[in-house]
Model the fold of this input.
Amino acid sequence: MMKCDEEGATQNMMGAAVLVCTDGQWVYDSTATAAANKCDEEGATKTESMGMGDAFSMDMTYICKDGQWEMQMPDFGGMFGGDSTGGFPGGMNFGDSSFTMPGGGMGDFGGGNFGGGQMGGGQVAPAPGDGSISAHTILMIRLLGNEGFKKAFINRYCVLLSMNFSADRLLKQIDALQSQVQSEMNRDIEFWKFEANSFTSNLETIKSFAQTRQQTIMNEMKTYFNLGETAQVTLSSQGSGTIKVHGLALDQSSLAINFFKDVPVTVTAEPKSGGVFSGWSDGNTEATRTFVPGQVTTLTATFK
Done:
């Protein structure tokens, strides 16, 4: 149990659960919790932020149900993708890498979701609920009908899978989050009466998902968009500048990315303050250019 010093003191836990200091121990108080969670307007919603320092932050949604605020528990699988209904919001922050994805994260193609509406195997299926197709789905379908947008979408997603969603980066963030709660585990296990090995097992499941999800998405994009094989291209910058792929800036000076061979990639060499672009490693001097993956394996932008 969790020890406390001031008899009668209270503290609020996630979900507005109230603990009361009783005989030197923090004890859950259902009466105080019910009072703290009281609401008047049935169906009303509210949002509160919660987080773990700089490593992770998110918004939690509550709905007024039967006179009580009820927290809509996140689907922790939806953290990286899949059906995001009731899951994490699309805007999340992991350390220094902010990203927003339709549907909540590393989402699905071909049977998965885009922003609540489903797109399966190239066929539009009704979104859950009232049977209508969500506005998000309609918008995405129509945007993907534009060849330029589709190319940018595919290539930017390839970059994100090697950058924001790379296994190394995700594992570091998972380890950072795990280290923050490690010191509380024994107390939590005792308080909630669950097995310690369940935490370890769930942690390994999350890590496995983070390590394999990239290739799963590449396979789903290949199927959904009827794409060919992939080719790895290493994009690098030297000097005071960076490379953008269809407008998406790389956050490191050198990055190996798996692109699809049949989707041309447009890159832009963008100087930083005081820098001047001098050319590409293959002799091309145009700041914005397009190349075909497979025909190009390495490309370096040089800045003075």
